[in-house]
Amino acid sequence: MSTPNSEQGKSAIQIVAEARKTIPELTAAQAREKLDQGQIGLLLDVREPVEWEKGHIPGAVLAPRGMLEWYADPTTPYAKPELTTKRDAHIIVACASGGRSMLAAQTLQSMGYTNVVSMAGGFNEWSKQGFPIEEGTAEMK
C-alpha cells in the first residue's frame, strides 16, 4: 500500500518540516530585538525582487532563493560580498512567511555558513507587528 506522495516524492511542506528539525527559528520580535541590539551580522531576504520592492526590512540584503547558492559561493561571478564575507556571522534569513527562508537557511548551512537561523512568519509577520519597513528598487548584480 502506498502512502500519500510516496509515488510523487516529498511535498514542499514535508521538505520544510524536515529542514525545521535542524534549522533554528526566531520570531519577528526576537529578530527585531537582535537587530536593534546589533547582534546580527546579516539579515538576508530571499524573496523575489518584486516582493522586495513592495516593502522590506531596513538593512536587509536581497538574495532571491533561486540565486542563493551562486550569491553565497565566493567562487562564482555572482558572489555577493555582503554574504560571502559573513560565513561565521549570525545570519537571519527572511522570506514572506517562513518556508523559503527555512530552505535557504538549510542551504547556507550545507554550504558552510555556521550561524544561520530562519525568521518564522517572515516579512508578513514583521509587517503585521508594525516593525519598520522600507520600499525601494531591488539592485541585482
From TrEMBL:
Record GO terms (molecular function): thiosulfate-cyanide sulfurtransferase activity
Pfam families, sorted: Rhodanese
Database matches in InterPro entries: Rhodanese-like_dom (IPR001763), Rhodanese-like_dom_sf (IPR036873)
Rhodanese domain boundaries: 42-135
Domain of life: Bacteria
Annotated protein name in UniProt: Rhodanese domain protein
Organism: Ktedonobacter racemifer DSM 44963
Upper lineage: Bacteria, Bacillati, Chloroflexota, Ktedonobacteria, Ktedonobacterales
